[in-house]
Design the sequence.
């Protein structure tokens, strides 16, 4: 689930409509979220480190919380399905039709 908090500023001319389109969120996922978490991969023992600060630096005690790792795997799986469908020119519901 994605939450968006919009703060109203005096005399601001921000186009909040950009946050409603799928392109904005696709860009956020492909350029920010997915690369960030891919850099937390534990190549020696497997899994993903979850004790990470906002710059991507892994904490001094490298922790791996199973719930967070399962959310990461689910997120990567959804991204794969969505991007594969887009590249193949199919919609997600088409995958489930017989």
Sequence:
């Amino acid at each position: 689930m994605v939450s968006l908090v919009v703060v109203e500023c005096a005399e601001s001319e921000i186009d909040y409509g950009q946050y409603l389109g799928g392109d904005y969120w696709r860009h956020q996922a492909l350029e920010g979220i997915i690369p960030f978490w891919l850099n937390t991969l534990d190549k020696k023992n497997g899994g993903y480190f979850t004790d990470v600060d906002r710059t991507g630096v892994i904490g001094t005690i490298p922790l791996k919380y199973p719930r967070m790792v399962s959310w990461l795997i689910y997120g990567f799986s959804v991204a794969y399905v969505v991007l594969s469908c887009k590249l193949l020119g199919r919609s997600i519901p088409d995958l489930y039709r017989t």
Summary: Helices lie at 22-38, 66-88, 92-96. The two ends are 29 Å apart (CA to CA).
